């Protein structure tokens, strides 16, 4: 799929959902080109990662080693800090919002809405 196509993100999301359909919500979640895989134990995680990578490989999709993080105890995803115990807003984003000056014009409001 060429880059820049208007429907490329939706098409890619649908493709990833179809490829990983039987595993979504059980061992993984997918958002565009981000795949989050989870488990309770290290052995289970190895199996889950192998399962997802096999599904991708069967469909001729491959992960870039430079962009891949494996066996993490916590992640930052879509503006949230996610760990085994909690999901919370990314502190850097919260600080920016709290430190933002009070808007005095329509363009100030648009700038703030672009932040959040």
UniProtKB/TrEMBL annotation:
Start and end residues of each Reverse transcriptase domain: 1-116
InterPro entries according to UniProt: DNA/RNA_pol_sf (IPR043502), Rev_trsase/Diguanyl_cyclase (IPR043128), RT_dom (IPR000477), Viral_Replic_Matur_Polypro (IPR051320)
Alphabetical list of Gene3D superfamilies matching this protein: 3.30.70.270
Origin: domain of life: Eukaryota
Protein name (Swiss-Prot/TrEMBL): Reverse transcriptase domain-containing protein
């Amino acid at each position: 799929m060429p880059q820049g196509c208007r429907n490329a993100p939706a098409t890619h999301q649908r493709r990833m959902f179809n490829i990983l359909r039987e595993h979504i919500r059980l061992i993984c979640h997918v958002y565009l080109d981000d795949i989050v895989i989870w488990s309770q134990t290290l052995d289970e995680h190895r199996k889950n990662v192998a399962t997802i990578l096999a599904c991708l490989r069967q469909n001729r999709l491959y992960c870039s080693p430079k962009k891949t993080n494996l066996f993490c105890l916590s992640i930052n995803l879509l503006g949230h800090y996610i760990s085994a115990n909690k999901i919370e807003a990314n502190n850097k984003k919260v600080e920016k919002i709290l430190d933002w000056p009070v808007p005095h014009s329509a363009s100030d409001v648009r700038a703030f809405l672009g932040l959040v």
